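FORM 7B - TANDEM STRUCTURE REPORT

SECTION 1: FIRST PROTEIN
SEQUENCE AND TOKENS:
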Amino acid sequence: MYYGYPPNNDGWSRMLNTERLIDWDEKGNIIPELAASWDVDVANKTITWHMQKGVLFQDGTDFDAEAARWNMQTFIDLNLQTDGKKVVSLDVIDKYTLKESLTEMTSQAVLNFGWVQMFSPTAYKINGDEWAKTHEVGTGPFEFVDWERDNYANFKRFDNYWRGKPYLEGIKLIVIPDATTASAMMQAGQADMWVEPPIKFAVELEQKKFTINWGLGYFWALWPNSADAGSVYANKLVREAIEYAIDRPAMAKTMGFGAYEALAQIIPKNTDGYIEGYDPRPYNPDKARELLTQAGYANGFDTTILCNNSNQDVATAIQSYLGAVGIRVSLDIADFGRYYTELMSGFFGGGQGGFKDLAVGYVGIDIPSITGIIRHLGPTPMTGILGINGAKSPEFLSLIDKALQTYNPADMTKVTQEVVKQASEDVLVVPLFRVPYGTSMQTWVHSDYDLQHGVVWYCWDDWMDAHK
């Protein structure tokens, strides 16, 4: 948990306390939030934002075009804004209208620039930078009260919320590190909601008739360091062999307690761009051995998989599958800090300073699908994760450019399918399975959390039955 103005904010407050210009609905459509509407002028490379009227920050000051400009500029100055370098100017036209001029317009621009959290500029200017590191003032339905890192955070209802008063008086977030303890608290009625419990506990609670909201969740994959020209994984035949060697349906069934979805594509079923029946490399260890021989590794080779304690079981299963086709795997079990440092630096640094051979890990599944692909696998990924630069073919990058210039939803579906197929052709990654978000709730709780996305929560609409 981290609460404060950017860059210190990285907590649940982004859904309780602060809001954005736009939001997602459950189908992945961009919908208005603090921006009532917007006009996109592709030819002149501008977005004109029209703000909601009558919106107050929790300090009583107005949310308006100037407040939006201040926040957007702050994110740009802190280098936290995706495509921030493409912003030429942010011009306040009137109290509720902001015009944004860009060097390049893309199909992702509204989402990228509308996704900025909005904080009160006045509160920041009055109280200063040190105060802002541990405090927040937003427009959201719940007002920040206090917090203790890695322990709890308190929020109370904001009575002047622009959508009307939330139903709940407040929300308290509590960190319970031990899953068994958290499960016992839910079963004893000592907690109302458990956000994203380990899958085993989520399934067990669902079987005990607790409500579970299942969301899209995480895309798990095996990521090869193909950016290093000296690596065996720069050889596409080797990457293909590894994909054939892994029985993903069996892994999903064993590890997911019936909740995981085995993946043969870089996006899951029931998402825009999914190709029904497309499974380019199903489990076939004989084919894997044949490809390794063609690649010059008839006797296999030695390699490592970067993992940590929380995903060691995934790495161990892969170790066994690769061992069966002659690839001798050692597990590099890193602590949390080193694991994520190497995973991320592996992207921007290629083989220099990142993971050496293979890594297991996940990224969030964004909607629509093309947004997630661009954010995680595009030429300048915002997540900064994974060393796969070397496998991105000119064809893949050309299709990403095509997607960035596609504005019609029906056309985008077709382009996304082309991108998905090319990613498989390049063997950018080896898809493993989808791990769904799962939020467990008491039967008296009514919430949509996780149904849209793990960073979307219409919490002003949550309510509870009288149960005690």
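SECTION 2: SECOND PROTEIN
SEQUENCE AND TOKENS:
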Amino acid sequence: MRKLSYRPPDGNGPWTPSDLVARSRDISERVVEEQHLAAAGVVFAAAVAVRDPADPAINAIGPLLSGSILASSAWGDAPVIAPVVCHIARFRAEAEQMALVQALGTSAPQCWLLLFDAVRANSMPATMLAAARLINRLRARGAPVLVGRAGPSRRLWLALGADGVEIGLGRLEHFSLAEQGTGHRGPGHHPPRWEVPELLCSLPHSLARELMRSASLQPCLCPTCAQAMSEHERLAGTVTHNAWVVESDLRHASGLSVAQRRASLLESLSHARSCALSLAEVTGLMRHLRHLWTWPDVVRLVDEQLQEDAERAA
């Protein structure tokens, strides 16, 4: 990181919000240059996290985005993806979200990448509703919206209006600002979690192994599981199993409207709750499945919001 051309000046610590604004053009150009010199097929715009509406960093996100788009156009026609990194729980109100969207300026990237700080599958419905509102506010600007580090929550994001998701195939199941640049050591090596499509979740290997021995779940049809001769071989192929599950989910969602995705999700949730109750004796499982009971509330809140918006427009 110290070798990157857009690093902060040596000895001065991280960029301050005022520095980011004052030097946005130079920083953006260097961020874009590094990617083009690495032969990137797409370019990520320079971005900074915004923790709340009063965060002075909000003044930098527009200049960094416009500077990145301008710089990228000088290199060619690579699509520009604009990250929007925020603590969505502090951007619930309409005025707060409008301030964030307006701060982005009028620049038009080819795609938005939303990274919601500390939003997990079992987050409160009000937080998920706020995320859905921001997704649709950005979609209204004409470019598709992806949700980063979506993990198993991808099913909900797609049902709430996201055009696509970024997946870590069992790793990075949600985004957290606390994990960015802290310098702290991680918890050590953990194998990627195992996708369980019937329960709309992913699980650590210890629980996945127990479920493999259960007669409550259907046999997995992915090539990894079909060819494996043991539980160990199945778990060794976790990433390819997860890729198959994710691809199946995305292929299914691509043929549906957003309203149809919500209806399909509600049906899947009903089935998943029945499966979960039949597996209630598996120690530690239910704490991974609280979203099966909260996501229907999220869908209901979104439907109510859409109805209110339609009535207001009429």
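SECTION 3: OBSERVATIONS ON SECOND PROTEIN
Residues 194-313 form one domain.
The first helix runs from residue 17 to 22.

SECTION 4: SIGNATURE
Preparer initials: ____
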